[in-house]
Amino acid sequence: MNAKHYISVLLLFAVSLFAGCNKLEQVTAYGSDRIVSPQFQSAGSVVITEDNYATGTTTFSWKGADFGYPAQVSYAIYAGYGSVSDYCLFENINLTSYTVSNEALYTKLTGVSYLGLPTGASDVSMYVTATIGSHYEVVESAPVTVRFELAELSSIPTLLYLPGSYNGWAMYSHGIWGTENLYKGYVDMNASGSPVVFKFLTAKGEWLGNTLDALGGGDNLTTAPSLYYVTADLNEYKATLVPFTIVGLTGINGTWATPAVALPYDAASKRYKATIDVTATGSFRVLCYSPEDAAGWYWSYTLGAASADDVDVAGGSVVRLLPPSESGVAGDGNMMMRETGTFEFAFYYNPTDSYFYLSITKK
């Protein structure tokens, strides 16, 4: 091939390439007025029972959106119930259907930090959104009402809530866990006003007051501001409250007492906290002291790491706590302080997941 012929071929290739680029550039997405939104399809009734909880699945589907451009579409499923609106159940879906295990769906529907459905039958407004990029327009389907029929699962822990004056009567912000209608746990009822008034609220929406020995309809329950260990038997409709006068750490710096170091309550942050000089590493736990616990040597109410992954702690640690009998840690569930220095220890309730935590911040 001579030079002249070679240059001609290059020019022809360049022209073809330019024409091809122009053709590609003509394939563009629709403007906002031409985008076709997805259409969420009714799933009928979604029923989750003891029989299909562990092995069953639920599928949501929709007719796809059309952006006029052959790009991958990303969908997200939203739901609303009661005071919760536009809650994203599932996202980053690239198909026009989504199948989820009933176990995962049940958690998303009923969890306190999720949609918050009660057990029984509930009508939920659902829709799906679509987009072709994080900086592109998001379109959504018209809402569809889906009925969920959720059994109360005896083997699955549920929350019994305690709304009252201490938390502004927030219905689902403070609760204790239980199974088979037997509930127990710690509740921070410290408040500036006295007495504290409250009621129990079940996952079915049943309000229970009257008296601790005969829970039912009736007046609010009353008590003094404090941290309590609460038990409730909704088979017998009875409850107990054990008050604590001191909250602190025991075992810290090798000193085991009731407690070794007190954590005063800070009303502004709703935390029991103190700054402590840690001079020796070693095991410790949270101890709640009650004058009613003399028979238990004042050691009946202690909290340690909820899992083995949280045993070793130092500055920056945030540990979910459980009583030793409920934790996944062998023995007493003690935490192990691995660092010396000055630290702020803070013991507090997290309404997002309804557990108590201990945070350790190095000063």
Descriptive overview:
The protein is mainly beta. The chain is 9% helix and 44% strand. The chain is built from two helices and 30 strands. It has helices at 3-25, 102-110; strands at residues 39-40, 45-48, 57-63, 74-81, 84-93, 97-101, 120-131, 139-140, 144-150, 158-161, 175-179, 182-188, 196-198, 200-201, 207-211, 214-216, 221-223, 227-233, 238-244, 246-250, 261-262, 265-266, 271-278, 282-289, 302-305, 312-313, 318-322, 335-337, 341-350, 355-362. The strands form six sheets. Strands 20, 21, 22, 23, 24, 25, 26, 27, 28, 29 and 30 form an eleven-stranded mixed beta sheet that branches. Strands 2, 4, 5, 7, 8 and 9 form a six-stranded mixed beta sheet that branches. Strands 10-11-12-18-19 form a five-stranded antiparallel beta sheet, with no helix packed on it. 29% of the residues are buried.
